[in-house]
Amino acid sequence: MKILHLDTQKGFRGGEQQLIYLALGLRELGVDSIIACSDELYKKAQALGFGAIDSKNFYKLQSTARKCDVLHAHASKAHTLGVILKLLTKKPLVYTRRVDYKQKKASKIKYMLTDKVVSVCNAVKQVLYANYRINSEVIYSSVDFSLLNQVDPQKVESIKKQYGYPIIGNIGALTEQKDHKNLIDAASLLDKRYTFLILGEGELKDELENYAKQKGVDNVVFLGFKQDIQNYLAAFDLFAISSQNEGICSSILQAFMFKVPTVTTDAGGIVELIGNNQRGLIVPTKDAKSLALAIEKMLSDKELSRKLVSQAYEFAKDFSYKTMSQKYLYMYKSLLKA
């Protein structure tokens, strides 16, 4: 079996990481993947030995699609591309929806022409049904526990020495969806000896840096995209997410895996990960004061922190990329049988 994955996003964000995890898992199951993409994902796919083609080369896309068994789109624009390729090649199309915000009404046409829609959490599933009456299947995002074995203790110690205690980490694209201004507002309410490390790139980088300056917050550091994300996760004393919209936020699962105490907003599918403050502390979106108080509580109450971290780590074990890949393979096979 051969799958053509479609991703039109720039940069390398959570969705692109999940695509790579899926391709790796499928390869272990004997399934070939070709990844149509660009930018950082293209480089990553090639480095890992996957067939990679330029997502803008439509002639190559069409000829490749005809040689594959299933088309799998991983982003909204890629979904549009997938529908066009499906109509031309008659190949079954899968689309994975990763975010919970509403789309244009015209997007319903794309869903009607898609053979199988996957939501990365129940929150996304509910939004799709409310908007389009689409019954999607939930397949959660995943983590790779082998990342724990890739930590460089010397690099971790260097990060800790450079920034001191406590280091509050955040991983995510610098977009409106992630609402980093909320995190900056929370930082302005906390002790200035706390260091906030924000990892990720995005169109709002300059705006966010200027916003931090306006708020007089010089302990918020924008580090950009990092290849060795595992070393930063291992160095964090706390992980904080301030999003106003989310799918599942797989970086939270990574924090769980690295046993980092976690504080988040209640956006999208995050509640499905945190539970009722069972695996971290959860606060309303756009409430900087509550976010700051939760950060303080998690850092000061060591017994609570240890309890939540332990429960979160055990919870994360159910989100292996191998399990996710097996579920997608079952779906592909069912489409081909149909």
UniProtKB/TrEMBL annotation:
Coiled coil location: none
- Molecular function via GO: glycosyltransferase activity
Give the InterPro entries listed for this entry.
Glyco_trans_1, Glyco_trans_4-like_N
Ranges for domain Glycosyl transferase family come to: 157-314
For whether the record's keyword set contains Transferase, the answer is: yes
Q: Does the keyword Ribonucleoprotein apply?
A: no
Swiss-Prot/TrEMBL keywords: Transferase
- Matches recorded under Gene3D superfamilies: Glycogen Phosphorylase B
Source domain of life is: Bacteria
Q: Name one Pfam family in it.
A: Glycos_transf_1
Q: Which PANTHER family match?
A: GLYCOSYLTRANSFERASE (PTHR12526)
Q: What is this protein called?
A: Glycosyltransferase
Which species is listed as the source? Desulfurella amilsii
Upper classification of the organism: Bacteria, Pseudomonadati, Campylobacterota, Desulfurellia, Desulfurellales
